């Protein structure tokens, strides 16, 4: 039985990847951080579902600690390692740039160093991001598009990308970078815009919340479903040779377009009034959406849209969910919770 080790298992992608690999018959080992409280509804989900019965094991560890990383890899002896661990909230990375860099950049180096010390045959997946393209220099973005990150998070991910390429070339290890565009699901962290919008609008529909405060309504994102994207991660490590791949849908929506799609699905009528930070959304003359400067970023990624031709050709990967099915999946989850 193949053993895998997932750093960042308690995150959105960690959950989908674990489920996917367990189905494939893998023995899955996941690393979680020690917290004063059991950390989230996602850990509760992990503990209370199929993971209990199958070959799934949780270990405490932290990618900011070299020894912890080294010892875990030594003890578990995985065939594949997926590095999903990161401070992944872009907005926060402006306030905690050192912590972000330590986890998102140096964390990757710590894993790579451990691999070359312990066993160079371990395959490695690095969770790269479309945020590396930042202020995009071409449209759409491919594996060849130069990076221009716009946040400490993006900069840290660029470091991780290149150190992964460098270790691949220097030590001939099987290391891949996924350059993943935004992907969402019911397990998305609550700060991210899709989850924030859907959760709030569902609550507004059931009169459990009055208003939703957002920031920039006009940035554009290429949104996919996490369930599709974790399959691409696995496919990269099953390819004949290690390589880097853009994973996206090739379709783009603004935040406002996303909100309008959610409102339509929830059958909430909307009228937009005002411009810029003063723009507001009204339903039956009641303001339910407002913008606040608090939610704006010092530097923004205005537009992002990828081209997954390489993944389609080499990995035979394509997204199965479209924007509507992502929204429906997320709404169903919130409504069940309410
Ligand atoms: P999440 O934020 O949901 O999950 C991040 C995971 O990393 C959590 O399990 C978190 O643990 C863990 N983590 C954070 N810091 C550390 C640390 N110092 N040591 C060990 N674990 C740590 O992210 P996603 O699941 O959405 O994303 C997975 C990866 O993919 C991340 O690296 C992200 O940057 C990257 N990515 C995500 C995209 C997306 O749209 N979702 C797109 C492109 C890249 P805890 O639960 O304790 O906080
Ligand atoms: P992003 O995702 O920064 O693209 O990073 P996020 O959902 O946080 O923001 C998307 C866009 O929405 C705008 N926005 C708001 N964002 C948040 N979070 N909250 C708001 O109130 C709000 N109002 C408007 C943002 O300005 C932005 O333009 C995600 C993360 O998962 C990263 O880890 C990952 O690498 C990239 O996607 C690809």
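Q: What amino acid sequence fits the structure above?
A:
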């Amino acid at each position: 039985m193949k053993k895998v080790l997932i750093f960042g298992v308690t995150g959105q992608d960690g959950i989908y990847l674990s489920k996917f690999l367990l189905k494939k018959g893998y023995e899955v080992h996941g690393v979680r951080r020690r917290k004063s409280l059991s950390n989230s509804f996602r850990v509760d989900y992990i503990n209370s579902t199929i993971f209990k019965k199958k070959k799934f094991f949780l270990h405490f560890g932290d990618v900011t600690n070299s020894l912890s990383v080294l010892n875990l890899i030594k003890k578990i002896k995985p065939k594949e390692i997926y590095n999903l661990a990161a401070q992944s909230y872009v907005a926060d990375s402006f306030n905690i740039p050192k912590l972000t860099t330590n986890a998102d950049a140096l964390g990757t180096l710590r894993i790579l160093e451990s691999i070359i010390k312990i066993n160079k045959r371990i395959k490695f997946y690095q969770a790269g991001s479309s945020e590396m393209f930042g202020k995009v220099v071409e449209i759409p973005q491919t594996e060849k598009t130069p990076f221009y990150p716009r946040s400490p998070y993006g900069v840290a991910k660029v470091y991780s990308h290149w150190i992964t390429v460098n270790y691949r070339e220097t030590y001939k290890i099987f290391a891949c970078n996924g350059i993943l565009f935004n992907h969402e699901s019911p397990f998305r962290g609550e700060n991210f815009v899709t989850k924030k919008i859907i959760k709030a609008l569902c609550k507004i529909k059931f009169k459990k919340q009055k208003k939703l405060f957002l920031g920039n309504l006009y940035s554009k994102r290429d949104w996919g479903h996490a369930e599709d994207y974790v399959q691409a991660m696995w496919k990269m490590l099953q390819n004949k040779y290690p390589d880097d791949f853009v994973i996206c849908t090739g379709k783009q929506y603004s935040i406002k377009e996303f909100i309008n799609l959610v409102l339509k699905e929830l059958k909430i009528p909307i009228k937009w009034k005002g411009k810029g930070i003063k723009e507001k959304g009204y339903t039956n003359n009641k303001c339910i959406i407002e913008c606040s400067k608090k939610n704006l970023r010092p530097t923004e990624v205005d537009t992002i849209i990828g081209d997954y031709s390489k993944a389609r050709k080499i990995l035979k990967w394509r997204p199965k969910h479209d924007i509507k099915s992502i929204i429906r999946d997320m709404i169903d989850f919130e409504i069940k919770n309410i």
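Q: And what stands out in the fold?
A: The domain at 3-186+224-251+304-321 is CATH 3.40.50.720 (Rossmann fold).
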